[in-house]
Amino acid sequence: MRVMVMVKATEDSEAGRMPPAELLDAMMKFNEELVKAGIMLAGDGLKPTSEAKRVHFDGTKRTVTDGPFAETRELVAGYWIWQVKDMAEAVEWVKRCPNPMFGPSDIDIRPLYEMEDFAEITTPETAALERRLRKEMGG
Amino acid sequence: MADGIHQAIETVFRIERARLIGGLARLVRDVDLAEELAQDALVAALAEWPRTGVPTKPGAWLMETARRRAIDGFRRQRMRARKHAEIALAQDEADDGADALEAALDDDLGDELLGLIFAACHPVLPPQARSALTLRLVGGLTTGEIARAFLSPEATIAQRIVRAKRTLRSTGLAFEVPRGAERQPRLASVLEVIYLIFNEGYVATSGEDLIRPALAAEAQRLGRILAGLMPEEPEVFGLLALMELQASRFAARTGPDGALVPITDQNRARWDWLLIRRGLAALARAEALGGADRPYALQAALAACHARARTAEETDWPRIAALYDRLCAVAPSPVIELNRAVAYSMAFGPETGLALLDAIERADALRDYAPLPAARGDFLFRAGRWAEARHEFQTAASLSRNARERDFLLRRAAACGG
Q1: What is the complex's ipTM, to 2 decimals?
Q2: Which residues of B touch A39 (CB under 8 A)?
């Protein structure tokens, strides 16, 4: 399965404070471990939301707002895409990550939808089943 | 809570397992014993970590524990030898064993995993045993999982693995990463095994499912591990590029009814653009390392031609034809000749393709090979020779062992009109 591992923002990351050299070094080593384990697919750090835009949707209306955005702890400061066997494996790897921030911080792990998740919706069998159910329900 | 810590320990073990077995096999020169020692270390962890918490370097802890047990084992052997007043030679050997183990404690832990991969793919083993052993030792798959993946009875796979381990033990393999003149042929065997596993997943040669994605995914993971551990080997990146690019089309390769969709008809929005980006990067790395003209890199370059085309019409068929010329020169095979004919038909018209197929058929190496009449059928169809095309598609369908592929060919035959 694939997961997106999201490093959540803090006041420091939103202020654009660069981490110290030791942390960058530890992070580099961690990334090397991920590559050697064959689980790293992609990863990047994100600039603070002071450089971001937000597009709000409401029906056909689109409203664009400039950053920075207020809800700091809900924002994402960086991400990886990993290929892992299951969520437990992703959790163990995240535990090995050096604390990416100066103070307390959070990392969220979110599974990606995969081909199989959509296969369920599109097989002819389920489509036929759905048609039959609709008919039985008089729809 | 107790369940939580146990699951965490099992997961940590799964992550460390292959490296652990690689390191231990290097010490005791026996994969079976290494697996047993690793399992003992897991048992020790399950007893200790719930109390002490998971150590900061769990891999090192497991290795240290297992090594201590290995040394104890050797000492016990020596004691037994004394008690039974065995001949002096046996005792000397046991002493040597224990000393070697103690000395190895200070060894560099860097490439145990690589050593294990090279051992599992050793050319002394029959090809089928290599993939089974690699999936077992490096991939951590159970015998049952491997059997399902290869559509073989579990007993067959189990026997294959047991024999392979025995062969490795009797050859006294050192579980080291080969160097010098031995390195390239051994590496070629590793790449071959990984690509075989990938292909087994990518194009199931028999059975109902066209793709067994789990097997392909495991091969990709092995390729990524290898690329991480051997960053200077061009063909490692060539193979990785090939697998990433081919896998990028998994979702688009089958229609909603499970039928095969040819590359020119695929919905490119369903291609996996992350894998394409990774594949193109790996290909660039292979070429930068001077490996552009090696077989895997050339095949990856072919796959990249499709990946780079935004629409099927934009496909650079003359470039694909030229790449097939080079591939035929470095890795000649009848199947590649056939693909070359397809490329030429797309670049220069169906008549050119038909002429090349005639030459292949005269060589007679692809008798009863479904893709050959399928290609001829396609060329004839595009040349407007429908009756002949229908006959070829029907022949191809009767030769195909894959149900999905057969359906596809029969549909094409039907499309030729009656």
Answers
A1: 0.81
A2: 221, 224
Domain boundaries, chain A: 2-113
Report the 10 Å Cβ neighbour count for B78: 19
Spatial separation of the C-alpha atoms in residues A126 and A112, rounded to whole Å: 22
Measured in whole angstroms, the distance separating CA B66 from the mean position of its chain's CA atoms is 29
Which chain A residues touch B274 with a CB distance below 8 Å?
Answer: 41-42, 81
For B153, phi then psi, to 5°, come to -65, 145
- Structural domain spans, chain B: 2-104, 327-418
Q: State the maximum Cα–Cα separation within chain A, in Å, rounded to a whole number.
A: 67
> For B139, which residue in chain A has the nearest alpha carbon?
A85
Write down the pLDDT at residue B255. 78
Place of tokens 């797309």: B346
Per-residue model confidence as pLDDT tens digits over B81-103: 666 555 444 445 555 555 555 55
**CATH assignment of A2-113, among 3.90.1150.150, 3.30.70.1060, 1.10.1040.20, 3.40.50.2300:** 3.30.70.1060
Specify the CATH number of the domain B327-418. 1.25.40.10
Other beta carbons less than 10 A from residue B166's beta carbon: 13
Determine how many CB atoms are found less than 10 A away from the CB of residue A102: 14
Q: Tell me if B256 and A89 make a contact (CB, 8 A cut-off).
A: no
pLDDT tens for B105-143 read 444 445 889 999 999 999 999 988 999 999 999 998 889
How many residues are there in chain B?
A: 418
